[in-house]
Automatic annotation (TrEMBL):
Oxalate binds at residues 105, 110, 115. PROSITE patterns: GERMIN. This is Germin-like protein. SUPFAM superfamilies: RmlC-like cupins. One of its GO terms (cellular component) is apoplast. May play a role in plant defense. Probably has no oxalate oxidase activity even if the active site is conserved. Mn(2+) binds at residues 108, 110, 115, 156. It holds the Pfam family Cupin_1. Its main location: secreted. Disulfide bonds join 31-46. Residues 60-210 form the Cupin type-1 domain. Residues 1-21 form the signal peptide. Gene3D superfamilies: Jelly Rolls.
């Protein structure tokens, strides 16, 4: 009997860990984010279901290439609950990512979502780094039609290694996956992380760190 109880508790603990790993399930058909309403769900009020329209569940523009004329040579067009109010409580979102030749989507993490990326055009090098202490880089070159998964919370990146512009569609397991770009967060925080701390962390000269911080 004791063994059965222990097994039951272990199962419940495992189930709970999975349940907490993604957005909570909705207990109604939908909760379209609206400017006014009586019920607050995920930080927004629910639109009256009788007033919901098809436009609350649609988005146009993913056929349009993003402007990649910037320092990193990429552009992310996000489609979250902000762009599609009907995504609220549904636990999914997506994005279009465009790259110029040699453009990168810099190392970043999504604290609340696993991502699966599918290449639509071009050749993309992708990779993610496992957690401490291994910090192992897992990387692959993808071509048109290939897909790749970035586990939730892990640092990952993409680079266009082809000679033409490229783009991909990414699906994420949260309506609001969040994004933490490592360089921006570490070198461009407000206020700054003290330079001496970063110099020790990265084993760099203090002047080099201050120069890096000035760029962000």
């Amino acid at each position: 009997m004791a063994a059965c109880r222990l097994l039951l508790f272990a199962f419940l603990a495992l189930y709970s860990s999975f349940a907490l790993a993604s957005d909570p399930s909705s207990l109604q058909d939908f909760c379209v984010a609206g400017p006014s309403g009586k019920v607050l769900v995920n930080g927004v009020t629910c639109k009256d279901p009788k007033m919901v329209e098809a436009s609350d569940f649609s988005f146009s523009g993913l056929h349009l290439a993003g402007n990649v004329s910037n320092a990193v040579g990429s552009r992310v067009t996000a489609v979250t609950a902000t762009q599609i109010p009907g995504l609220n409580t549904l636990g999914i979102s997506l994005a279009r990512i465009d790259w110029a030749p040699k453009g990168i989507n810099p190392p970043h993490t999504h604290p609340r979502a696993t991502e699966i990326l599918t290449v639509i055009e071009g050749t993309i090098e992708v990779g993610f780094v496992t957690s401490n202490p291994e910090n192992r880089l897992i990387t692959k070159v993808l071509n048109k039609g290939d897909a790749f998964v970035f586990p939730v919370g892990l640092v990952h990146f993409q680079k266009n290694v082809g000679h033409r512009n490229a783009f991909a569609i990414a699906a994420l397991s949260s309506q609001n996956p969040g994004v933490i770009t490592i360089a921006n967060a570490v070198l461009g925080s407000t206020p700054d992380i003290p330079s001496d701390i970063l110099a020790k962390a990265f084993q760099l000269n203090l002047k080099v760190v201050k120069d890096l911080q000035s760029k962000f």
